């Protein structure tokens, strides 16, 4: 528990520092992105070399902006709205995004229990966590494979909660993200939730995806778990506490969703 406390303290100060830098960097990228757009429009199409160079600048600026977004999301960490949400709607969004953008040799399977309980939280943040896990899964399957996302209700008994320090007795919604990718050795799996830990090449990964995911889920009073086997694949679990009865009613009527928000 103490190490969990220290971890969240460390993440908080890191978050502030990094957030400040990212914010300024993001501002610097704006004129570059806009400037390239203007230049691209002016360049005459016969000049390949100039066009290629502009495209290269554009790509780098876009990648930079993506990274800044990731870093800012990490720094923002715990803030977010708290409204009643139906998890299947979030999973459906993720299904749409993955089937639209993932390569064809990555098969995406989505399954959600019909009677999923509502949870309380920030839909955008939870979706971001799921997308992070899905993108990592895709990256772990360079030769294709299967990505499975499953959501189901789970109950922890007093006894199970005692064995798992992060769980409270009661109802949760568990979202499982499973891939048939490279998997990872134990010494990698032990570090993946640490900020800036990455095995990806420079410029490819910030190492903030999973630490952001972890802090977002923790701020929802939930927790995450992972199991991985080299050459077989990796499974992540996100546990979000189920909302109480009142929230259940509100989540069923979309117009009332905001009522939970303070
Ligand atoms: P990034 O994706 O920028 O590297 P993350 O925090 O999202 O940062 O992930 C950290 C590391 O965890 C990755 O570099 C990778 O080594 C490992 N990892 C995460 N998800 C998977 C996965 N599904 N399969 C194999 N390795 C993974």
From TrEMBL:
GO terms for molecular function: ATP binding; phosphorelay sensor kinase activity. Residues 20-244 form the Histidine kinase domain. The keyword Glycoprotein does not apply. Residues 247-262 are annotated as: Disordered. Keywords: ATP-binding, Kinase, Nucleotide-binding, Phosphoprotein, Transferase, Two-component regulatory system. GO terms for biological process: regulation of DNA-templated transcription. It comes from the Bacteria. This is histidine kinase. It comes from Salinibacter ruber (strain DSM 13855 / M31). The lineage of its organism: Bacteria, Pseudomonadati, Rhodothermota, Rhodothermia, Rhodothermales.
């Amino acid at each position: 528990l103490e190490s969990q406390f220290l971890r969240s303290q460390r993440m908080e100060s890191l978050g502030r520092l990094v957030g400040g830098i990212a914010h300024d960097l993001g501002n610097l990228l704006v004129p570059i992105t806009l400037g390239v757009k203007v230049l691209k429009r002016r360049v005459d199409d016969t000049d390949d070399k100039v066009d290629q160079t502009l495209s290269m600048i554009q790509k780098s600026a876009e990648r930079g902006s993506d990274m800044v977004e990731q870093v800012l999301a990490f720094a923002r960490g715990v803030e977010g709205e708290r409204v009643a949400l139906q998890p299947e709607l979030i999973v459906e969004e993720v299904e749409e995004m993955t089937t639209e953008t993932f390569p064809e040799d990555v098969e995406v399977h989505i399954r959600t229990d019909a009677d999923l309980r509502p949870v309380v939280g920030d839909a955008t943040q939870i979706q971001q966590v799921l997308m992070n896990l899905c993108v990592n899964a895709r990256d772990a399957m360079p030769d294709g494979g299967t990505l499975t996302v499953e959501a189901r209700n789970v109950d922890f008994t007093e006894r199970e909660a005692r064995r798992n320090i992060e769980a409270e007795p009661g109802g949760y919604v568990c979202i499982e993200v499973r891939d048939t990718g490279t998997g990872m050795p134990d010494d990698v799996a032990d570090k993946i939730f640490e900020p800036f830990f990455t095995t990806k090449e420079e410029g490819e990964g910030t190492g903030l995806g999973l630490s952001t995911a972890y802090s977002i889920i923790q701020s929802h009073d939930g927790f995450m778990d992972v199991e991985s086997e080299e050459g077989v694949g990796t499974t992540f679990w996100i546990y979000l506490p189920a909302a109480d009865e009142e929230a259940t009613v509100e989540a069923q009527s979309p117009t009332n969703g905001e009522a939970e928000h303070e």
